[in-house]
Specification:
4-stranded antiparallel sheet, alpha+beta, 3 domains, Immunoglobulin-like, 10 helices, about 550 residues, Alkaline Phosphatase, subunit A
């Protein structure tokens, strides 16, 4: 059995695919499965010290009762019972008098401030995608994998981002995971082609998992079963490394008092972990955090159920923002929300049915806080649905999304203006194409042009140390990857000069140098024969006078 098969099917000994539960202080922490080979080339390729915290509003949040178009008479007509009036909403947004938040979201109103670009919250209207999916499971899958609705992918957009920038998760003692998800189950948002790029846990650990080798050694010349058992043990060891880091290095106390809810407690832990890494000029080693709140599936009793959820969300988000500001790390942290779909404009009894587009939020001191996009269109003609056209098939009674705010454009802008801000633009563009359109492993969308400059963030990125991106130097992913025999390594030089391209083992030993000499500027590529290499993880490194860039490569036979 190959390791990629193991990740999909699990072992006969009963290990769940993609994740192995390990007890940490009485609760399970799961290391996302990946190639067992370690990397000695684990250097930060981050362009900045920015961190992204993602809040999933599970179940399909009703956007119309969240960001309320209270001046639109169509809203009241469509919702004679559920429509919110003056007693159910906050004051109108200072820079957008036709909109107000749900009355339970006074924390969001505080974050929004005066808007007009001066607040700490971006409200993005009518976010969606063509041919929308109204199923919870498949809809969530589309948002997590960032694909067209008709394309199925086994990797997530965050997993592809982290794999493209870091290659493999760090596994040395004292390492932090690249991504952390709070929850009972691992999400495909963190999966990459060769496995996962982080860990998932239910709560902050109180003590670390035991380390060391407290089991029998594996025989020499092992069978496939023993080979996979070694892989399982490696995941256990990595779980122990991460748990020990989290327990030993996380600050003990927050700067502010949080509400008493699961979401607030998780955000409080995230604030402490980020502060622990960034204090005293440190580096943000964990780039992505994910928390989930819900369920927003309000088919009935929506008035009370959504109010309770939005009270929790708003208060927890405000406390988190105040906390990271008190820690002095707020300029390096942004929060992004998403939900698998919105809900239909017309009420159905005491609730609403699954719908299409909805507003989403980005929070942070580096966010240009205002409303993006137009108010939702609720007239009969706009809700007539479509069978074809730019929005694809949209059922009657649903809102048409704003193509400028396709959720992939939102992701592309987050990558461009936040996660990779400060990197060479050619490198950013290549990364966005790998993540959202096509890489050497799969195709994710028929679209090859994404709007990555929606202007959600201020331009002054927070730089960290030396930039591993070399301006004018682009190293692309080899194809095919995994490599079975010959593989092609493409790259782009924007100036002529001496070029070295080396192939390295996971231990950092150079085993081949297919390029070593003068080359002219422009697109280049070299072919490398990997047929004689043992299966495993490798790296290839491009060096010119402009700098050095490294990418991972997998060999399988």
């Amino acid at each position: 059995m190959k390791r990629r098969d193991f990740l999909k099917t699990g072992l006969k000994i009963g290990v769940a695919a993609n994740a192995l539960p390990v007890m940490l202080g009485g609760f399970p922490i799961r290391a996302l499965g990946r190639s067992p080979l370690r990397s000695a080339l684990e250097t930060s390729s981050s362009a900045n010290n920015n961190v992204l915290v993602i809040i999933q509003l599970q179940g399909g949040n009703d956007g119309l009762n969240c960001v309320v178009p209270f001046t639109d008479p169509n809203y009241a007509t469509l919702r004679p019972t559920l429509g919110l009036t003056s007693s159910g909403i906050t004051a109108a947004l200072p820079d957008h008098s036709s909109l107000a938040f749900h009355a339970s979201m006074d924390g969001f109103l505080t974050l929004y401030g005066n808007g007009g670009g001066s607040g700490n919250m971006a409200v993005i209207q009518n976010v969606g995608y063509p041919n929308p999916i109204l199923s919870h499971f498949r809809g969530t899958d589309v948002w997590n994998t960032a694909t067209d609705s008709g394309i199925y992918a086994s990797s997530g957009w965050i997993g592809r981002f982290l794999a493209g920038q870091y290659g493999a998760p760090p596994t040395t003692s004292g390492s932090w995971p690249l991504g952390i998800e709070f929850g009972n189950a691992l999400s495909d948002i963190f999966l990459a082609a060769n496995g996962g790029m982080g860990i998932a846990m239910n709560e902050m650990p109180s003590k670390a998992a035991p380390g060391g080798q407290n089991y029998d050694t594996i025989p020499q010349n092992p069978t496939t079963q023993y080979d996979e058992l070694a892989f399982v043990r490696l995941i256990q060891q990595e779980s122990a490394i991460y748990s020990q880091t989290i327990v030993s290095q996380t600050l003990a106390a927050n700067k502010v008092t949080y509400p008493s809810s699961t979401l607030a407690t998780q955000l409080a832990g995230i604030a402490r972990m980020i502060a622990s890494q960034l204090q005293n000029g440190g580096t943000a080693q964990t780039k992505i955090y994910l928390v989930t709140q819900g369920s927003y599936d309000t088919h009935s009793d929506q008035i009370s159920r959504q109010a309770s959820l939005l009270t929790d969300l708003s208060a927890a988000a405000l406390a988190f923002q105040q906390d990271i500001e008190a820690f002095g790390i707020a300029d390096n942290v942004a929060v992004l929300s998403y939900s698998e779909f919105g809900r239909r404009p017309a009420e159905n009894g005491s609730g609403t049915d699954h719908g299409t587009s909805a507003p989403h939020f980005i929070i942070g001191t580096q966010v240009i806080g205002k409303v993006y996009g137009s108010d939702p269109k609720l007239d009969a003609a706009s809700l007539a649905g479509e069978n074809s056209g730019p929005a694809g098939a949209v059922p009657s009674g649903n809102m048409i999304y704003d193509a400028n705010y396709d959720f992939r454009n939102v992701y592309a802008t987050v990558i461009n203006e936040w996660l990779l801000a400060g990197a060479d633009q050619a490198t950013i563009n290549a990364a966005i194409q790998d993540i959202l359109t096509q890489d050497s492993n799969a195709t994710y969308s028929a679209n090859s042009s994404w709007n990555a400059s929606l202007g959600f963030f201020k331009t002054n990125s927070q730089s960290v140390g030396s930039n591993a991106y070399a301006p004018g130097l682009m190293l692309l992913q080899n194809y095919p990857n995994p490599a079975y025999g010959a593989t092609t390594i493409p790259y782009v030089l924007q100036s002529s000069g001496p070029v070295e391209l080396g192939i390295f083992t996971s231990a950092g030993v150079e085993i081949a140098r297919p390029v070593d000499g003068w080359q002219s500027f422009g697109p280049q590529q070299t072919n490398f024969d990997a047929s004689k290499l043992p299966s495993g993880a490798y790296y290839y490194r491009l060096t010119t006078s402009a700098g050095t860039v490294t990418r991972p490569m997998v060999v399988e036979h």
